[in-house]
Design a protein that fits this description.
Number of domains: 2
Low-confidence stretches: none
CATH topology of the largest domain: Rossmann fold
Number of strands: 14
CATH class of the largest domain: Alpha Beta
Mean pLDDT: 87
Structural class: alpha/beta
Shape: globular
Strand content: 15-25%
Helix content: 25-40%
Distance between the termini: 47 Å
Number of helices: 15
Length: 380
């Protein structure tokens, strides 16, 4: 089933096509039409299953039809447990909202940073991604109002409840209008999730999707222990030493994609990057060049890489690890396709070693590790 058959706005369908998102993930196929019909949804899906886009796309499609208001009344609220997830969800929203005309304003707010810039930037925001504590702080400071929220999304509700956000969530729900659409996503249907479901959702559509398993048998995996300061030179060494002519490099942030690509170019390696802050034309051009073999290295975040499906991609390098094992499997699954072998390399700093052990345990495969200290990286 193509995206064009799900009922999304023409601009979003065009965006998906331009970025070569060829078909929806199972959860997107099931959830998007229900959200567009105004139904409450309870989605059970693991990280890496495509759930973020399953609510972002229809929410943007619904809001696109409504008149833009220049005030501090949020229309769609996405509540998440962590700053990292807030940033990730905002990146997805910003990425797709850039295709709308006029562009729909969105923003992520979270603690750990100054509240004043967030307060000033809230004017005209229609979709807000927030952690519970910072959201309540902003409401108490009269920086925004939740009285006009039409759509509430709780992402990773299971983690939010496990981390003890119940009291804050009760306060937030009390501030919302009773008439609204509710979308709740969780990795599991635990008792805590069921209890909050009964309080929030009204006659919900229940969607449960098991994440598809990647076939890792054709992928040769290697990890390199490396210090943070030697990571860049090691990346360039591996590309040149192994004469890699088409390699997809993953980073975890927009900033790092630019940084890595720039340093590759400065060292004579043809490279480009794609991320949510680049224009549609730039993203499309970079992806096309890479897929056709005209660009040696493409540096990307997880979000953009969802649209990268290259049948004979030989190399994937994790410059930084993703936050979940599912995302790791999805990353390395870009290679080793159509019965063609591929190679996946991960650069592991001391701070990432424990996380990489968790990834291997979840993957049920142990990766061959190499100590890079003995590699002479002078000149790289």
């Amino acid at each position: 089933m193509p995206f064009s058959s799900l009922g999304l706005s023409p601009r979003l369908v065009t965006a998906l096509s331009a970025l070569d998102f060829q078909k929806p993930y199972p959860i997107q196929e099931k959830v998007i039409p229900e959200v567009l019909m105004g139904k409450d949804v309870l989605g059970i899906a693991q990280t890496g299953s495509g759930k973020t886009a399953s609510y972002v796309l229809p929410v943007l499609s619904l809001l696109e039809k409504k008149e833009t208001k220049r005030n501090r009344a949020i229309e769609a609220l996405v509540v998440v447990p962590t700053r990292e997830l807030a940033q990730q969800v905002q990146e997805v929203i910003s990425h797709f909202a850039s295709f709308l005309e006029p562009r729909l304003k969105s923003m992520a707010v979270y603690g750990g940073v100054s509240i004043n810039p967030q307060m000033k930037a809230l004017m005209g925001v229609r979709v807000l991604v927030a952690t519970p504590g910072r959201l309540l702080e902003l409401v108490e400071a009269n920086a925004l109002t939740l009285s006009e929220v039409q759509i509430l999304v709780l992402d990773e509700a299971d983690k939010m409840l496990n981390l003890g956000f119940k009291e804050e969530m009760d306060k937030i729900i009390a501030l919302l209008p009773s008439k609204r659409q509710n979308l709740l996503f969780s990795a599991t249907l635990a008792e805590d999730v069921q209890s909050i479901t009964s309080l929030i959702l009204k006659d919900p559509i229940f969607v449960k999707v098991e994440a598809e398993k990647e076939n890792l048998d054709l992928i040769s995996q290697t990890g390199y222990f490396v210090s943070e300061e030697r990571k860049g030179p090691l990346l360039r060494y591996l590309i040149k030493h192994n004469d890699m002519q088409q390699v997809l490099v993953f980073t975890s942030s927009v900033y790092q994609t630019e940084n890595v690509a720039e340093k590759l170019r400065k060292n004579g390696i043809q490279a480009n990057c794609i991320h949510s802050k680049k224009s549609q034309e730039a993203r499309t051009k970079a992806l096309k060049s890479f897929k056709e073999g005209h660009m040696r290295v493409l540096v990307a975040t997880d979000l953009i890489a969802r649209g990268i499906d290259i049948q004979f991609l030989p190399f994937v390098i994790n410059y930084e690890l993703p936050r979940s094992p599912k995302d790791y499997i999805h990353r390395i699954g870009r290679t080793g396709r159509a019965e063609n072998p591929g190679e996946a390399i991960s650069l592991i700093t001391p701070d990432e070693q424990q996380h990489f052990r968790v990834i291997q345990k979840k993957m049920k495969k142990w990766v061959t590790m190499v100590d890079s200290e003995s590699i002479d990286l002078r000149g790289f």
